[in-house]
Amino acid sequence: MIFAEEINAYQCYIDALNEKNTDPYENSPFRVYKEMSSRKKGKHFELIVQEYLRKQGYKVGKALNSDHDRIINDRIKLEIKGSLLWGDGTHFRWQQIRTNQDYDIICFVAVYPEVIQFHAATKYEVKSIVEVQDENGYWIHNQHGGKTVNSGTFFLDGMPKDFSWFSSLEEVL
pLDDT tens digits, residue range 148-172? Predict the structure, then answer.
């Protein structure tokens, strides 16, 4: 057993304190999102996109079904995926990308400590990127069930600059 007054002598505790102190969101107004559960983050990312688009003059409506998050200008089905920086702040991870769902465009919300960016691509662009196998037949963007079977649920890891096929949200809309 380790008592509270003894933990200060443990290097792993000192390392944990140092990691905590290097949190890029420590003094960011976006820290509130980092502290939310995944479900709450998703809801708030949807609300951020909705309010942003309305401020840009777009008409934003409720989804027609659970396969997308919003309807833009009465015709475009928008799916929203958000992420804060992962790990040591070197990449984003957008998850739960399902290419068999009913949407036209995916908005990738990138929440940096100092700015929120909105990137986008059509469903077909995303599908052509995530539904690929490597030379060993592994599904490299597969999120569930290992790499040998296409689960239908994918992820993207990287920084927006890594995805030349990203466009600004307004360009895609």
Answer: 888 999 999 999 999 999 999 999 9
Burial class, 78, CB count within 10 angstroms (exposed 0-12 / middle 13-18 / buried 19+): buried
Structure tokens, 84? 């804060």
Give per-residue pLDDT as tens, 66-122: 999 999 999 999 999 999 999 878 999 999 999 999 999 999 999 999 999 999 999
Say which amino acid occupies 87: G
3-state helix, strand, coil in the chain (%, to 5): 30, 30, 45
Q: Which CATH class is domain 32-172?
A: alpha beta
| Stated pTM of the model | 0.87
3 state DSSP class of 138: coil
In 3D, which of 61, 160, 150 has the Cα closest to residue 110? 160
Domain locations along the chain: 32-172
CA dihedral defined by 15, 22, 94, 150, rounded to 10 degrees?
A: -20
Which amino acid, 63? A
